[in-house]
Amino acid sequence: MTIRDQQREKVVALLAAHLLETGLTRISLRQLAEAAQVSDRMLLYYFPDKASVLASALERAAGQLATRLEELVPEGTCLKPAVLMSRLAALTTQEDLRPVMRMWVEVVAAARREEPFKTIAAGILEGFRQWLMPRLDLPDDERRDATTLAILAFVDGLALIDICAGGDAATRAADVAGLLFCK
Predict the structure, then answer these.
(1) Cα(117)–Cα(106) distance, rounded to whole angstroms?
(2) Which of 31, 37, 52, 104 is spaced 20 to 30 A from 176 at the CA atom?
(3) C-alpha–C-alpha distance, residues 82 and 181, integer Å
(4) Angle at which helices 117-132 and 50-72 pack, to 10 degrees?
(5) Who's near 113: CB < 8 A, 6+ residues apart?
(6) What pTM does this model have?
(7) Where does the source fall among the domains of life (predicted)?
(8) Tens digit of each residue's pLDDT, the chain (183 residues)
């Protein structure tokens, strides 16, 4: 890895941490550069434009969740929908992942209005969808796909509950997650 690549990785890590801490409210290029501890010019040396800066930082933040998901349900594991949903609900309501889930809600809200958020949100959602589908123990692909989307919607809903009603309410909802898919 070149020195430029190493520095770029450091910048991405700082940017991801900044976005998780502050949300998308402070996203001018100058503010992003300040958070990355570089000048605006240097930030544009590492990235072609602001959209690339945001995409890299948000992908890093999503990667934190992806790592935890892989630990929770490793590749090759296949679970019934109720079990998988319960595990995902419990994981995504953990205190240390709340900033990641809140950031996801902000990205989705911003995706309604503008790029690069539409593209970023679509890519992240598709990545989680592709991760989830092979881990579902269901007989046919059509049902597996629909169930995957329902689980993703539920997990996203937990993030909304957390933001609007607090972590305790989200945790209570997560605790009964498996019951919703039992049949």
Answers:
(1) 9
(2) 104
(3) 5
(4) 20
(5) none
(6) 0.80
(7) Bacteria
(8) 899 999 999 999 999 988 888 888 668 889 999 999 999 999 999 999 988 998 899 888 888 889 999 999 999 999 999 999 999 999 989 999 989 999 999 999 888 878 888 988 998 899 999 999 999 999 888 899 999 999 999 999 999 999 999 989 998 998 887 777 665
